[in-house]
Write a structure and sequence with these properties.
Elements: H1 2-19, E1 32-38, H2 45-48, E2 49-56, E3 59-66, E4 72-82, E5 91-93, E6 103-108, E7 117-119, E8 123-126, E9 130-131, E10 135-137, E11 144-149, H3 154-167, H4 173-176, E12 181-183, E13 188-192, E14 199-205, E15 209-218, E16 221-229, E17 233-239
Antiparallel strand pairs: 1-2, 1-11, 2-3, 3-4, 4-6, 5-7, 6-8, 9-10, 10-11, 12-15, 13-14, 15-16, 16-17
Length: 244
């Protein structure tokens, strides 16, 4: 299943590069969560599956959920800029990928050899790249764009947890690198109904991962409104000092 998605991704990028030229770059950071938006009205991709890119520095995690919103595929990519067209590349040393360059390039992380090289069929290059605080375009918006979002839906988070257990990998750590997810640092964090007010009978333990919904300063103390996806979804307020 993962191989089919790799082939589909490469084919899609081949279509991208048929339309585009004159690479454009910006100084904005690509770090964050990007939700795929399908502009093809005659296609039904957006109703059959949803896709997100979670970017942190030189790593991109692509998570795609199928129509049932339970099953899906996860791909890990290494990314950066280099100065050769795809047609000029036979193999690539991923250590050459940098913060600037002529072509934004991504390679499948699980196909990087021990010598740090990857073969041509695992390399994707973009002739056109534009992104700012809210939008990411790799083809001028002719086929698809990505909108920046603060959080992923609950089903995406749960899927990352489930696949992480199956694959023995920590996929949620890429979410934790954004400002919207944190890990409980205190041994025990009491959940409050409102900031600096009545405590609930619920609490979180050290190591629990929470989604940050809001921050508020009350009488000199910073509070975070959080959502926790455990056996059941829990929302409430905790002290900011309780998280890493």
């Amino acid at each position: 299943m993962k191989m089919k998605f790799k082939v589909l991704l490469i084919i899609t990028l081949t279509v991208f590069c048929h339309f585009i030229s004159n690479a454009q770059k910006t100084n904005y950071s690509m770090n964050g969560i990007w939700e795929y938006v399908d502009n093809r009205s005659e296609e039904s991709f957006s109703t059959s599956q949803k896709s997100w890119r979670i970017v942190f520095e030189d790593t991109t995690l692509i998570v795609t959920l199928f129509k049932d919103r339970i099953n899906g595929v996860i791909l890990l990519l290494k990314s950066g800029f280099q100065n050769k067209k795809k047609s000029e590349i036979d193999s690539l040393n991923v250590s050459v990928l940098a913060n600037v360059g002529a072509y934004y390039t991504e390679v499948f992380g699980d196909e990087i050899h021990k010598n740090n090289f990857v073969k041509k069929y695992s390399i994707m290059t973009y002739d056109y790249l534009y992104f700012d605080d809210t939008n990411l375009e790799m083809d001028g918006g002719k086929l698809a764009i990505f909108n920046k979002v603060n959080i992923v839906p609950r089903e995406v988070y749960l899927f990352l947890l489930k696949k992480g257990i199956e694959d023995k990998k920590n996929y949620t750590k890429y979410l934790l690198k954004s400002n919207c997810y944190r890990v409980i640092y205190s041994l025990k964090s009491i959940i409050h109904f409102t900031p600096n007010n009545k405590q609930s009978q619920q609490y979180l333990l050290k190591g629990d991962e929470v989604e940050i919904l809001e921050e508020k300063l009350v009488k000199g103390t910073s509070w975070l409104k959080i959502r926790y996806y455990g056996g059941k979804t829990i929302e409430g307020w905790i002290k900011k000092t309780d998280v890493e």
